[in-house]
Amino acid sequence: MKNSFTFIGMIYQYNADEQSGLIMLSDGSNKTFTNDDWVDRLNSPSVGQKIVYKNSANAIEVKVATQDDINEASSAKKESKSVDEHLEYYISLGFKLVKDIKNDASRVLTLRSFARGESEEVIIKEDTSKIDIVRTLNGKVVS
């Protein structure tokens, strides 16, 4: 479907009384959602949750992102051609850029995220035209 898209994002504002909130998507855009859009019956929306946002011509669906959802989105992003696209993606997930080292033909970015007692780090290495991404969760490589 031409106007259908799916993104990973994060809830950065939620009002339980109004049953609505705001999401920052991996492409940097902001979207609103209501409890009518929330399709996850096991979890309630809350600030800081990583979510999957699906928008089609018929409906918006929002749910908590599983690790499979995040890995799938990460794999799709690895196919992109720009280090800056990777940077934007991880920042949209709540990571903060802590180091950006540029040399003649290489670049190394380090991003970190600390949420809910977990620490994550992403290292993006670009050497000529090759991009490698290593993601660790609590010190263990996850991708």
The low-confidence parts are: none
Mean pLDDT: 83
Per CATH, which architecture of the largest domain? Roll
Global structural class = alpha+beta
- Our count of helices gives 2
Described by strand count, sense and barrel closure, the largest sheet is: 5 strands, antiparallel
How much helix, percentage-wise, in residues? 10-25%
**Total beta-strand segments:** 10
> What's the number of structural domains?
2
Model description:
This protein has 143 residues and is an alpha+beta fold. It folds into two domains: 5-64, OB fold (Dihydrolipoamide Acetyltransferase, E2P), CATH 2.40.50; 81-141, Roll (Nuclear Transport Factor 2, Chain: A). The chain is built from two helices and ten strands; from the N terminus they run E-E-E-E-E-H-H-E-E-E-E-E. It has helices at residues 67-78, 83-92, and strands spanning 5-15, 20-25, 30-34, 50-55, 60-64, 96-102, 106-115, 118-127, 130-137, 140-141. It is elongated and about 50 Å long. The chain starts with a strand and ends with a strand. 22% of the residues are buried.
Task: Give me some keywords for this one.
single chain; 143 residues; alpha+beta; OB fold (Dihydrolipoamide Acetyltransferase, E2P); Nuclear Transport Factor 2, Chain: A; 2 domains; five-stranded antiparallel beta sheet; 49% strand
